[in-house]
Amino acid sequence: MRILFRKFHDTFAANRAARKVSVPDDQAGLTLVEMIVVLAIIALVAALIVPNVINRPDQARVTTAGTDLRSIGGALKMYRLDNGDYPTTEQGLKALVEKPTSPPLPGAYPPDGYLSQMPQDPWGNPYVYESTGGRFAIKSLGKDGKPGGTDLDADIDGQTR
Predict the structure, then answer these.
(1) Is residue 30 part of a domain?
(2) Most buried in the list 19, 44, 74, 158, measured by CB within 10 Å?
(3) What is the CATH number of the domain that holds 156?
(4) pTM above 0.70, yes or no
(5) End-to-end distance of the chain based on CA atoms, in angstroms?
(6) Contact call for residues 105 and 60 (beta carbons, < 8 A)
(7) In terms of residue numbers, what domain contains 113?
């Protein structure tokens, strides 16, 4: 067995040594300086892209809040078409999920309500709803859940009718 391995090694090792090719200097690999320049360029590009990517989830939440507010506004309009008025401030947005038990009671109320669940903004806070009978206002208080604010903490106003 040892003779067989020896013969195999001698045959292929000799061929491998004969196949080595020298590489001309102009086709050699990258130098250390070239590698550092490439890494610096990659770091610069990453520094420009990363801040934009990090803010995307919060921008998506702002967009989602706007879409939710439009959907809630549509449900409130349907409520008014069926019942002649918007839910009162006391009844709140809960009137879109469950039939109100406090006056004014709705005359026509669909079995499944106007929304399938109580709406919350993308940050987990309830939407703010106010009604004066013939008009309503809905908004999200933003990321911080407090009135006012700037940037992502700013209030997101929905429909006012």
Answers:
(1) no
(2) 158
(3) 3.30.700.10
(4) no
(5) 94
(6) no
(7) 58-160
